[in-house]
Amino acid sequence: MKIKFKQFLWLILVLSVQIVAAQDGLISGIVTDKKGIPIPGVNIIVKGTKVSTQTDFDGNFKIAAKKGESLVISYVSFATVEVSASNNMKIELIETQNELEAVLVVGYGTQSKKNLTDNIARVTAKDIQQIPVANVQNALVGKLAGVQITQTNGKVEGGMNIRVRGAASISAGTQPLYVMDGIPLINDDESSNGAPTNPLLTLSPNEIESIEVLKDASSAAIYGARGANGVVLITTKKGKEGKGTFSLNFSQGVSEATHKRKWLNAKQYVELLQEAGRNADDLEYVEDELEYLSGGTDWRNGEIDTDWQDIAFRTGYTTDADFSSSGGDDRTKYFFSGAYNNTTGIIDSNDLDRITARVNVSHKVSERFTAGMNIGFSRSVIHRVQDDNSFSTPLQSVAQAPISQARLADGTPNPDTEYVNYLLAKDNTSWETIMRRVTGKIFGEVKIAKGLKFNSDFGYDFLTQSEDYWQGKNAPYMATDGEVFATSVNTENYVFTNYFTYDATFAEKHVLNVVAGMEFNKYNRRYQDVNSIYFPNDDFHTVDGGAEVNEGHGSETDYVFLSQFGRLNYSFNGKYLFKASVRRDASSRFGKDERYAIFPAFSAGWIMSEEEFLKDNTILTYLKLKASWGQVGNAEIGNFASRQLYQPNPYNLKSGLTFQQAGNDRLTWEKSKQTDVGVEVGFINKINLEFDYYQKITDGLLFATPVPLSSGASSINKNVGDLKSSGIEITLNTKNIETENFKWSTSFNLTTNESKVTSLPNNNTDVITDYNINRVGENVSSFYLVEYGGVDPLNGDALFIKNTVNPDGSIDRSTTSNYDEAKRIIAGNPFPTLMSGMTNTLNYKNFDLNFTFQGEWGASIYNSAGSYQSSAADWFDNQTADQLNRWQKVGDITDVPQARFYQQNGTQNSTRYLDKADFVRLRNLTFGYSLPKETVNDAGMSSLRIYFTAVNLVTFTNYKGYDPEARRDDAGIGEDFYSAPPAKTIAIGVNINF
């Protein structure tokens, strides 16, 4: 075919234009960190379009863009930048992790770390991911200065105790306010079996982007009436502009108790009981009981030697699987996730099965209007055991005699044990708790004018919990051929928030941020229970199988908060910072004369390193002074503490009412005034130190104060009493080594706290409970016990220190064997006075290692079970192994008195059973390996990481009990009563990203 010359010229022209156009429309470059190290997987998008790409393994990229177009470059843990497209680009990203440009979530907005004048502790998804724990709070332990996080005990659903900067109350709630994506979360313990459940167990770590803890009043006062115990802001993950991503994570772990105690075997048990019987002239009775407990077996020669502890504990297992997908363009962003957790607890018959799902979507409807929604769902099924003080709980079986069989020859539980055999409960009862949670939020944002926008959010939290307690005809204490107790609780909380935000910069020196708005919050709870008895057989496990519904209850309650709030942030010349906030709250919980309260806060900062005399200093690279003051409240007093109440009191099938509670129209918030002064210092851009001193004074503590009986009531709720908490916080972040192949960074925090009672009702009269006291000048809920004085080496008597006052005013420190002659003293503090955490992160080529040590000092634990299990055979309970060191002959030096059956030789409540709870723990450790990019890219993946992780791997402590963090779950403060230790878990997993 012939080509004409004109056609040839036209073809050449077209090709030339295409080549030029192609060259002009393809931009290339490289993305590195500030050390020049290439960063793979960086998202690059042409602003205002859907055109995007990612950098390759060497940090290189190519994107279809024209010169001058804006490129948005983003990557996790690095600051997002916007640059103009050009040829052969070299783009440098600055890491934001532990850097001043990191953006923190504050109430109703965000703020950079550099301009922050508050005290806020923060962890990100990177800090909590792939830690094999069932609840989010446990993943935070040791990572936040000023925040103590303790799981009540080793049960999978165990309640969490979180104290932010010490105590802010004695009788009202002490837990922080949790706010997720602007929704105040329901955190009510709805358990009906004596042991608490943790409602936040319904959250999965894989859906969380960051957690900020507002610790000082300047940051928490924006939440006013509910900020006294701190505020925990949970932000869920959102989609980002750029290429869509898909992530899979799977891990499998095995668990065991962090520690087991040593108990007497059958031979030792018999020897000790016989000796105790002889010393008490009651050997015949003791041996008769041993004959009964042995069930006719040869107890004298140890035919049966049951390890009840080994039966109560078991090997636990954890399975975690989750996925997430996210992405978006300049108009629509999305995030989807789902997670599954199955935990077989270390305590027999205790399990958790949970599923969660989340959808977060936002859409830019126009240049002025953006709308979106966040929806989360979870379902948690928990198979539970009874509380620590129930004889049918597994761990209390350690009190059983080792000469008793656990099961008879036919496999059925032995019914003839000292206490009820918990295996009867295991085989013939079940306690199932199901928690279902839906959180939802719809939101809209309108840009009204330059710098001015309006946000409207409607959030909803719905938590429903049902419990079914089935007892068969052979269950312990059963007298009605079976019984079923069923409860149902529906709790909902909705919040409607509307606020304006104004941002402006004047003369390039004055930066202003103003937030003002209002919020309406309504809470409703509806409770029902029913009990059914007389079942035809054990195949029926629901209420309708019983012949008689013999009992039922129901109640409904609600409360309302109506609030207005405002905040102003001002920065001059990038170095002088000022913030003021105020919130006005009204609550239906308080007396009609005191329903409104105002909570103001102020803070200021000076970035000295921006001054000319420090600006170019290469050693002292950052220096900021800051101070704050504010007032916050505590509204966790219950819904009707201020009301005069009457209760139904039927008699002889006739209805009636009786007086229940005296009302107080002046009852109001407990209010805390907090002061914080601090300094932030940076050296050579590698060392960052934060030091803060805080003081928190709470007045108007809520107490039930006595009234004359002629009033018809015994007490009335009043705001009387004060306490003060103070301490220091130190956070040190260092980048120890940074080379091309090896990086090592450390984060260290240390906190001191002292919480003292400064005023009490009734002319500062001591408030005493079983083992604790609140006394002016002493620590909150101090231990109040008779002081143990050891053992008389002449006769084996237990001794107690008198601690009585001599005529000259001195204290009589002599000892006595008469317990009634000794006086109680302040003997210890149930809360730590020093806490610390240290996290190290190391990366070598494709290997990564992260581990956290946690420590607490200054707290004590009272083992109220000690008078049974460490009593030198005062009872038939099995004894701890240290009771073998009892006094036996004249001259013996020991702390264990002579064994005397049923003689109370040293078994009274005293400091004998009080122990220091100091410990250092390797809280978590993760070691991972990421396959080379070339390998995984060929398989269509962007990354593949295999990891090993562990929780509670090693504990260093002198505490004699099960674990220095385990506490009684049914009552008490700082008390151990057959309380299970936490689990030590080791898991392996894989994380895949596409």
UniProtKB/TrEMBL annotation:
Keywords: Cell outer membrane, Membrane, Signal, TonB box, Transmembrane, Transmembrane beta strand, Transport. Residues 113-231 form the TonB-dependent receptor plug domain. PROSITE patterns: TONB_DEPENDENT_REC_3. GO terms for cellular component: cell outer membrane. It comes from the Bacteria. InterPro entries: Beta-barrel_TonB, Beta-barrel_TonB_sf, CarboxyPept-like_regulatory, Plug_dom, Plug_dom_sf, TonB-dep_OMP_SusC/RagA, TonB-dep_OMP_SusC/RagA_CS, TonB-dep_rcpt-like. Its main location: membrane. Pfam families: CarbopepD_reg_2 (PF13715), Plug (PF07715), TonB_dep_Rec_b-barrel (PF00593). Residues 1-22 form the signal peptide. It is a multi-pass membrane protein. It is found in: Cell outer membrane. Belongs to the TonB-dependent receptor family. NCBIfam families: OMP_RagA_SusC, SusC_RagA_signa. This is TonB-linked SusC/RagA family outer membrane protein. It comes from Flavobacterium cutihirudinis.
